[in-house]
Amino acid sequence: MIPAGFDYSRAASAEEALSLLAEHGDEAKLLAGGHSLLPLMKLRLAQPERLIDIGGVADLSYLEDRGDHIAVGALAKHRDVERSAVVTEHVPLLAHVASHVGDPQVRNRGTIGGSIAHGDPASDLPAVAMATGANMVITGPNGTREVAAIDFFHGFLDTAVEPDELLTELRFPKFTGLGWGFQKFNRREQDWAIVGCAVQAGPAGGVGLVNMGSVPILAAASTAAVRDGASAADVGSVAADDTDPPVDLHANADYRRHLARVLVKRAMTSAST
Predict the structure, then answer these.
(1) CATH of region 61-173, choose from 3.30.465.10, 3.30.1370.100, 3.40.50.10490, 3.10.620.30
(2) Whole-prediction pTM value?
(3) Is 180-271 assigned to CATH 3.40.190.10?
(4) pLDDT for 36-77, tens place per residue?
(5) Are 128 and 94 in contact (CB under 8 A)?
């Protein structure tokens, strides 16, 4: 399908993008890699009057060691995250999951900030943010603010980023040398997960769930079990507690809860080896 007509602006910096957002208001949308927004536009589920292209803002594509955390610019490509030595050393779960996003074309064009800001509960990277306790840096007309992953996702495709703001950075705590696991169940290799999970071991680790609610979920009971050093079986057994999975043509709620328990146990087993 062909999207509705729109005007186009190209921003050379984050400051210019914010200025354009202020100028054009709620009818403007930011465009980075385009893998989330453009399909919605083709289906006429989104019809912005103006696209503000931030794909060329080079100063938001960094990957840096900041001492106690790894700072990832919102426009860092999935491929860059996947291949980053600093990410692989200190947050290997993030590097691994980035390597499983879409296909090589998507990974070389799509951005981590775009995936997180889209807020899709069926996406893999938000679960990593949950499991690792990442923080999101949001920049707007009143300066910057930092929002924890647990508070970032407000509803289906709805996040803490306001219409006049821009997600500029993601901050991942270091988990150097600690175990991790990632599992997802899908019909075909590049399909959205019917259910998935990201598990980060350690005293500050956690369990993030994919497609188990209207928002990306931190599995509270499983996270507490991980931090207490529980067995893989015990962590998995409570993975679906207090969840409200969607029902669609792929699975009903009970089947998704079963998958969550099985997949979290498998991911925790790999994190423990």
Answers:
(1) 3.30.465.10
(2) 0.93
(3) no
(4) 777 777 888 788 888 888 888 889 999 999 999 999 999 999
(5) yes
